[in-house]
């Protein structure tokens, strides 16, 4: 699920795209990723790394130069509680807020981080989402991955698809109407089958969009 700060959405998206295009053209550093986890034994850590590797394979396959950096993993960060509170505020308030100062203000625990993408492996049962952090420069994204409950709690297939889907939003992809693909919205996960990569497939529209955003290598 992709949530956006109202009012600054278009400006933020433009700045992010310009920064990533510059990175592609100059062979600059890959977008840095930080995974914050309550424990190293969390079942979502390895699937998150697999999702990053999946996207690097797909970016190479599509023919763009951009790559995501290997993630740094931080366990029991002092920022966890603050970021959990912020994630709850975003999840419950952002979609219906008017533009401007009513958007949840990002805490210093987030804005002081240097990484381009922060993946929070949340303890909360909230919707997973991607959030372009408002009022920060350079632009960055917070990706919140919900705690998996019930029979799918220890199923890495569920977690790797959720993380890969949210990273697709970070890269600029939107939902599509094809319910058995990675960027589906809505999806039909019980009848969807991964392809030979172990993930749900991208659409031709997704691949075309990546080329439009980042150009051929």
From TrEMBL:
Record's keyword annotation contains Protease: yes
InterPro entries tied to this protein: MetalloPept_cat_dom_sf (IPR024079), Pept_M10_metallopeptidase (IPR001818), Pept_M10A (IPR021190)
Transmembrane feature ranges: none
Entry's Gene Ontology BP terms: proteolysis
GO cellular component terms given for this protein: extracellular matrix
UniProt keyword annotation of Secreted present: no
Domain Peptidase M10 metallopeptidase: 160-215
Molecular function in Gene Ontology: metalloendopeptidase activity; zinc ion binding
Keywords linked to the UniProt accession: Hydrolase, Metal-binding, Protease, Zinc
Stated name of the protein: Peptidase M10 metallopeptidase domain-containing protein
């Amino acid at each position: 699920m992709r949530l956006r700060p109202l009012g600054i959405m278009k400006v933020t998206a433009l700045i992010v795209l310009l920064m990533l295009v510059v990175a592609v053209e100059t062979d600059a550093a890959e977008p840095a990723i930080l995974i914050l986890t309550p424990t190293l034994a969390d079942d979502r850590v390895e699937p998150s790394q697999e999702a990053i590797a999946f996207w690097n394979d797909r970016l190479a396959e599509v023919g763009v130069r951009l790559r995501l950096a290997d993630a740094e993993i931080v366990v029991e960060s002092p920022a966890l509680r603050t970021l959990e509170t912020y994630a709850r505020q975003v999840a419950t308030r952002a979609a219906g807020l008017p533009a401007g100062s009513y958007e949840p203000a990002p805490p210093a625990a987030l804005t002081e981080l240097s990484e381009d993408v922060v993946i929070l492996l949340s303890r909360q049962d909230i919707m997973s989402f991607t959030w372009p952090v408002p009022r920060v420069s350079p632009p960055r994204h917070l990706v919140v991955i919900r705690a998996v409950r019930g029979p799918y709690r220890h199923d890495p297939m569920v977690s790797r698809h959720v993380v890969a889907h949210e990273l697709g939003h970070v890269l600029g992809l939107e939902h599509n109407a094809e319910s058995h693909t990675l960027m589906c919205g809505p999806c039909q996960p019980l009848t969807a089958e991964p392809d030979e990569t172990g993930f749900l497939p991208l659409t031709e529209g997704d691949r075309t969009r990546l080329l439009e955003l980042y150009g051929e290598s």
